[in-house]
Structures are given as C-alpha cells and as structure tokens.
Amino acid sequence: xDSSIDRFGNLLAGFIRESQKAGSSPPLELGTLNADGSxxxxxxxxxxxxxxxxxxxxxxxxxxxxxxxxxxxxxxVEPIVVDIVVxx
Length: 88
Prior knowledge:
Elements: H1 4-21, E1 28-33, E2 39-41, E3 54-55, E4 68-75, E5 78-84
Parallel strand pairs: 3-5
Antiparallel strand pairs: 1-2, 1-4, 4-5
C-alpha cells in the first residue's frame, strides 16, 4: 500500500516530467540562499541577486545558518523561496 508521501512524490514527479516535456521550468526545485542574499537555483548556472526573487513571509529577515538549502516554487518565471529544507 502506498503512503501519502509516496503518492505525493509520484504526483510531483509527474508534474515535473510534464513541465520538462513542455520545455518549462519544473514547478518546484531546490536551491541555496547565499550569504550575500543571492539565490542559487540548482538548475541555473547563475545566481539570482537579492531583490529579484520572492520569499515567503515566515522567512523574511531570517539570516541564521547561511548558506541554507531551500525549496523554490516557480510561478511562471518568478522564483519564490517557500521554505528551508533540512536533512532528516
């Protein structure tokens, strides 16, 4: 029997495959918030400067433990840092 996590993972993988077929960015991906405030997205070769991406309200002003791995949601061409991700 599949768990809820497995079903969610399969659903997300399907969305990513479909977006890649369509030639668009995946809806969610990982990145790193850097000490200078820039955002390094795993799929891009350059960093996005501070002020050119959005951050969820609960992360505003959070400067602890930089650099930090983050979850990024893409809405069109706008990257939004949704949350911090950590190892289990």
